[in-house]
Amino acid sequence: MVRGEPPRRIFMSFIQARVMSTGSRPLSPHLQVYKPQITSVLSILHRITGVALTAGTLLLVWWLAAAAAGPGPFATVQSVMGSWIGLLLLLGWSWALFYHLCNGIRHLFWDSGRGFDMPTVTASGWAVVAASLLLTAATWIAGCAAAGGMS
Question: Computed from CA positions of residues 128, 110, 39, 46, in that sequence, does the dihedral angle turn out positive or negative?
Fold first, then answer.
């Protein structure tokens, strides 16, 4: 240690000498090395849909606040949600809701110790994807029929 050297420089030289040198240790492989498996993809998707549900809930709060604020603000929100981008957001939010629900039910089975063998894990993963798509389609068909179609 040189007298008068800044503490940050001393700390960084220690880090470089001890921690950052890889020496003969192998580097961890990057995600590009691994072939995506259904378990990892669905796990990541579960996290993403959880975040999307949070964002979608903010839209719901905006809609409720506009409804409480009066006809003008409510008409504004309705026009945004009725536009193609609004409908696309609602479609994505409803799919995220059903995916997160179905995958949560799958996790409840796992919590009870069932379904851990690989054929069941794969089958239940694809069942979650199929069920979420079917539930989303059924909800949108029922909603459009009840509203008299998409306008």
Answer: positive
Which 3 state secondary structure label does DSSP give 112? Answer: coil
- Its pTM surpasses 0.90: no
CATH number of 34-141: 1.20.1300.10
Cα 11 from Cα 58, distance rounded (Å): 44
Pick the closest to residue 139 from 106, 84, 93 (CA basis). 93
Please write the tens of the pLDDT for every residue from 54-85: 999 999 999 999 999 999 999 999 999 999 99
Model confidence over 9-23: pLDDT tens digits? Answer: 666 666 666 655 556
Domain boundaries, the chain: 34-141
